Every structure is written in C-alpha cells, then in structure tokens.
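Demo today. Your pick:
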Amino acid sequence: MFESLLIRWRSFYHGLKFVKKGKRCRIQGKHFTVEGHVECGDYTRFRDYVILRTHGKGKIIIGKHSLISYNTYLESTNLIKIGSNTGIAEFTVIRDTNHVFWGTKEHFALTPHIAKPIIIGDDVLVGSRCYIHPGVEIGDGAIIGVGSVLVEDTKVGPFEIWAGSPARKIGHRTENVPPEKLQQTEELIKKYGIRKFRY
C-alpha cells in the first residue's frame, strides 16, 4: 500500500517536470532527472536513476506504453523520438550529439558538434548497456542486442535483429528464421500464449 502511494506521489511530483505528460505515467524512481523539452505519452513507465536532458532546441519525445529502465541516459540538442510500446533497457545511453574528431587534431572539447535526429520506432527492444549515436534510425519491431553500439547514421530495418560493437544485422524476426528457433517459438506460444500489456 505504502509503495503504491509512494509511486503515485513520485509520478505526480516528477511529472511536473515534463513539457507534456500523458495520463497514468508511472515514475517509480526517487532519483529522476528531467531537464528541458521532454514529452511522454500515456502509460509510459520510468524506473530509477533515469536522466532525460535537452539543450537549446533539443527535444525528447516518448510514445505511449513505453519503458525507460534503470540508469538510462538520454541527451538531445536536436531530437530523440521513441515510439510506442518500446523498451529501453538499463544502462543504455542515447545521445543525438557528438564531437567532431575526424580530420582534425584539435582537442575534442574545442571542435563543433555533430547533431542528428535519432528515431526509434514502435515495439522496439533496446537491450542493456547499448550506446546509440547521432543519426540512428531503428524500425518498428526491431531488436538491439545487449551491449550493442549503433554508430552514427546506422539504419535498422523493421523487425531486424542487430548486435555487436559496432552493431551489425544478425537476423530478422520473421524471415529466414532457423528451424530450431522457429520450433522453440511455436512451442512456447502454444504452451503459454501471447500475454496482454499490463498497463
């Protein structure tokens, strides 16, 4: 009972920091930072030690029913857009801005910045400890494996599976699926079915 009331209070208190906040968002963390222009849709959930930070005209926009997990860091000077029903797992960093260092010997802190929108679609899962660079686009239903680094301008297609550092395509969720994986999926769905969203 107390825990439920505490989450409601935190959701209300931290919710005041958003430019726009949908209904029934859950902010369970005591340590939660929102700076600048940040929007989120209905039923979005945030866990503890999340930092959402924008500078200048930068925006962070998160769709409905999405989850931003523990110790994630999002920083924008341009645009970070995350779709609906998307999960960003713990310790992931998403930054749409980086220092220029190719073709110059100048100290990185003194060079101009590269700033490009990052677009992450609906129903995407970004695994733990990923790093997403400027200009990355991730299509609907895609999966990004644990510890992946998506370098500048990487384009991930819908339902593709990417992993590695730098990340590369290692498969597709519905095309050319290995027979053993397909059998495993069919057996698990037959046994347990497809769950409904809790929120």
